[in-house]
Amino acid sequence: MLTFRSALVLFLLAVTPAQALTLSGQAVVTDGDSLRIGAERIRLFGIDAPELKQRCDPSGRNWACGKWAKDALQQIVSQGVLRCEAVEKDRYGRTVARCMVGQRDVAALMVRAGAATAFTRYSTDYVAQERAAKAEARGLWSGAMTAPGDYRQIAKRGSTAPSGCVIKGNISAKGARIYHMPGQRDYAATKISPSKGEAFFCSEAQARAAGFRAAKR
After folding, report:
1. Which pTM was predicted?
2. What is the full DSSP assignment across 122-182?
3. How many C-beta neighbours within 10 Å does residue 30 have?
4. Could you give all domains of the chain from N- to C-terminal order, each with its CATH number?
5. From CA 93, how far away is CA 107, in angstroms rounded?
6. pLDDT tens per residue, range 189-211
7. Could you tell me the pLDDT band of residue 10, with boundaries at 50, 70 and 90?
């Protein structure tokens, strides 16, 4: 016979720590989609913001979009007490959560401002906000941008070109974004540093879409 005590134990076993967790308090922002409340590290559910060192290129201007996204999140969470409801734990041990300031969804505000993208790999909750931000060319959508996930893959590869992707996208000391083709004069001497926003591309169209122009032949 199932007693009250055994039923309670079964219920607690069925609820994971992440699902049962609610966090509230003053937040410390670490980047455009991550923060801390006390010792708990939190990743906002359903969105993906540029990495902290990532740079973007609206209207031909090389700018620190990763830092800008962090500042945007800081401005949002500073407007009131933050309350986060855990969804799960990610592979880095962070609590993935939906967070609110008052009655406002923090992730929705970030995507609507063009400060983050909808992370459709995990959720389609913020696709409408992203579509509206794109239509109004807000924030990240005001010019060329490498998607945060693509940027992370580039950074992981480091200075090694992926198979078949040998076009080098270089950023000069003055901020000029130029791509170099194999066989061109400066190709061999050009080094790629993903942390600066530089990258390898598989086609000239891909390089141009990321805001790079062709080097002089």
Report:
1. 0.68
2. T--TTHHHHHHHHHTT-GGGGEE---HHHHHHHHHHTTPPPTT--EEEEE-TT--EEEE-T
3. 16
4. 12-144 (2.40.50.90), 158-214 (no CATH)
5. 20
6. 888 887 778 888 888 888 888 88
7. very low
